[in-house]
């Protein structure tokens, strides 16, 4: 348990001053809460004693008690207020900071990371798991630090007045510590199982929600929701089983604390009957021990949760330790934008899909990449943007090996238009501004006009302030494409990677998109995964990719004058299956 506490303290590094001051306030607040009862018990003891001895009570006693009680109540509220002010928000502030750090890290990891790791695991780490730390860490720190401090103080006080009672209390505390150790061990065993179940549930929920449209269109609710419902059931079963494992230890812990309090009072009472302890001290000790031992019971929850937070911290450390492809990269300002693939090979996992590919693309040239589905066109573009690193060979831009650059400094020079456009759940203005966050309003509108989306945006009831549904769900495919082109226009990067839409858009939209694209690519180095014959024919050079290799390259005329796959492809393109034009 103390190891877990230590880890939480390391996690909150930078907040320790507030944390310890908060703990001090919490300690004082607990004593101030116990104080009035103690004072009343002390006064009662004096009244009983004076009645037994037949002596008159000091007339100042009731006023003294009343003043003391009011003072303690005020002190309690002041301390509780400052404890909350100083300590409560530390978890929230630290979790928010870590979410930002992890968000930044995820932006920099290679895309292969997301193939290897379940999206549900990452989502759970960023949301529910960090929330556990956010909500519980400070409560746990307070319960453990404050709880043990209170017990220590009461045992020391009792040792002064009545060592036998203190000894009984120590035995009870040791027994409760043994039970806590059991709770900690049980929790360490069950927390990772609980986490895995939670992650599986998050993954299943994401898949279930993403797949709902397919599920509905195929009318297969029963089959496809099975994984989600099974994950829900498994999660419930695991949590119930985990909870049952704690029951004996919880009972032992609570019993030992109660027994310590009762034992302390009985021993002190016995001493009073023997005449070795004064009655007011006995009454004070009785009131006091029940209040303090009662407040220590929450350590029980701490022991449960600390192992859970331990497992969360393991997961977060694992995420933070993720290798970044560009951690040794330099921030480079390129002066030229010619591209060279030099004997590049690459595989997803162990399966090589790009085999010893070499080609050069001069600055400001337009290159069309064509080839059958699955031949490696998108992979070549992903390698250029450093979504993945090559396994062999090298890719240079402006003569600079891209592995020696930071991803940010490389991607500053590249704008990409994908077939499947992703728009954020934000206003249209901010979605366009994503290309250049500091762009002025006039620049946003100018880019929208050039990308042929200004008119349809202005026709929307809230214009540029219209909220886009998640992923762009409330816009048509053509509208989303044009907004993404406006985004790239605003970025004004010297290299453009373009995946031409294969989905049939209506002729008017197609025309608008082509006009927007012509404005985007003017004077740039362009690589297009080309599907339209016009794009292919107008390109300065064509790369024909087949099975992860460059089968042919040249201009349309050169390639048409040769025997080969390209000419066959063009001639039979209407009938050829698997080819994209
Ligand atoms: N993330 C991935 N993990 C594993 N294999 C992948 C991944 N992405 C693509 N592949 C495989 O790599 C090969 C090349 O895929 P790629 O997407 O580059 O082809 P493509 O020519 O762009 O296809 P299309 O025209 O259909 O988009 C394919 O065999 C594909 O199955």
Which features does this protein show?
ABC transporter transmembrane region fold; four-stranded antiparallel sheet; 22 helices; elongated; binds adenosine-5'-triphosphate; ABC1_TM_dom
Q: Briefly, what CATH class of the domain at 2-320?
A: Mainly Alpha
Taking the sheet with the most strands, its summary is: 6 strands, mixed
Stated plainly, the CATH topology of the domain at 2-320 is called ABC transporter transmembrane region fold
Strand order of the largest sheet: 6-7-8-3-9-10
Give start-end ranges of low-pLDDT stretches. 576-581
Question: How would you sum up the global shape?
Answer: elongated
Quickly give the CATH architecture of the domain at 2-320. Up-down Bundle
Beta-strand residue percentage: 5-15%
Q: What integer value in Å does the Rg equal?
A: 35 Å
Q: Mean pLDDT across all residues, rounded?
A: 82
Helicity level = 55-70%
What is the assigned CATH homologous superfamily of the domain at 2-320?
Answer: ABC transporter type 1, transmembrane domain
Q: What's the count of strands?
A: 10
The hetero molecules present are: adenosine-5'-triphosphate
Helix count equals 22
In terms of structural class, how would the helical and strand content be classed? alpha/beta
State the end-to-end distance: 64 Å
Transmembrane segments: 61-82
Subcellular location: Cell membrane
Domain ABC transmembrane type-1: 21-306
Domain ABC transporter: 339-572
């Amino acid at each position: 348990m103390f190891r877990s506490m230590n880890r939480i303290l390391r996690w909150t590094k930078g907040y320790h001053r507030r944390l310890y001051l908060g703990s001090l306030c919490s300690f004082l607040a607990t004593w101030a809460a116990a104080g009035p009862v103690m004072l009343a018990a002390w006064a009662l003891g004096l009244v009983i004693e004076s009645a037994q001895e037949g002596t008159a009570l000091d007339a100042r006693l009731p006023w003294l008690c009343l003043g003391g009680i009011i003072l303690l109540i005020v002190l309690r509220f002041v301390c509780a207020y400052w404890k909350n002010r100083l300590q409560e928000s530390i978890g929230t502030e630290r979790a928010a900071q870590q979410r930002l750090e992890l968000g930044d890290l995820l932006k920099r990891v290679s895309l292969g990371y997301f193939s290897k790791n379940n999206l549900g695991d990452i989502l759970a780490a960023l949301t529910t798991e960090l929330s556990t730390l956010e909500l519980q860490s400070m409560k746990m720190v307070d319960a453990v630090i404050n709880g043990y401090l209170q017990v220590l103080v009461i045992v020391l006080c009792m040792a002064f007045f009545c060592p036998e009672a203190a000894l009984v209390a120590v035995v009870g505390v040791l027994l409760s510590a043994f039970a806590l150790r059991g709770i900690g061990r049980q929790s360490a065993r069950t927390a990772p199982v609980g986490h895995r179940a939670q992650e599986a549930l998050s993954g299943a929920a994401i898949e279930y929600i993403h797949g709902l449209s397919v599920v509905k269109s195929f009318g297969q609710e029963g089959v496809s929701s099975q994984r989600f419902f099974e994950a829900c059931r498994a999660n419930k079963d695991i949590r119930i089983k985990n909870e049952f494992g704690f029951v004996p230890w919880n009972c032992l812990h609570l019993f030992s604390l109660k027994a310590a309090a009762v034992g302390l009072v009985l021993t002190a009472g016995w001493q009073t009957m023997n005449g070795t302890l004064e009655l007011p001290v006995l009454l004070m000790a009785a009131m006091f021990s029940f209040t303090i031992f009662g407040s220590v019971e929450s350590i029980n929850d701490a022991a449960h949760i600390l192992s859970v937070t331990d497992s969360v911290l393991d997961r977060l450390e694992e995420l933070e330790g993720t290798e970044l492809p560009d951690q040794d990269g330099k921030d480079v300002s390129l002066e030229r934008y010619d591209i060279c693939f030099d004997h590049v090979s690459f595989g997803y996992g162990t399966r090589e899909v790009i085999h010893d590919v070499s080609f050069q693309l001069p600055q400001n040239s337009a290159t069309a990449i064509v080839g059958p589905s699955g031949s490696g066109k998108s992979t070549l573009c992903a390698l250029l943007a450093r979504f993945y690193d090559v396994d062999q060979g090298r890719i240079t831009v402006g003569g600079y090996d891209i592995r020696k650059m930071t991803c940010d400094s490389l991607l500053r020079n590249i704008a990409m238009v994908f077939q499947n456009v992703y728009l954020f759940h934000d206003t249209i203005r901010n979605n366009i501004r994503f290309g250049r966050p500091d762009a002025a309003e006039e620049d946003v509108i100018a880019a929208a006009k050039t990308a042929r989306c200004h008119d349809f945006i202005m026709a929307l009831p809230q214009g540029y302030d219209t909220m886009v549904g998640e992923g762009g769900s409330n816009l048509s495919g053509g509208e989303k494409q044009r907004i993404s082109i406006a985004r790239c226009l605003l970025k004004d990067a010297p290299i453009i990677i373009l995946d031409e839409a294969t989905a049939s858009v209506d002729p008017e939209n197609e025309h608008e998109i082509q006009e927007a694209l012509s404005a985007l690519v003017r004077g740039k180095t362009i690589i297009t995964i080309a599907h339209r014959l016009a794009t292919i024919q107008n390109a300065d050079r064509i790369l024909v990719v087949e099975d992860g290799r460059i089968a042919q390259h040249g201009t349309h005329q050169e390639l048409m004058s040769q025997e080969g796959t390209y000419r066959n492809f063009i001639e039979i393109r209407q009938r050829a299956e698997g080819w994209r034009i």
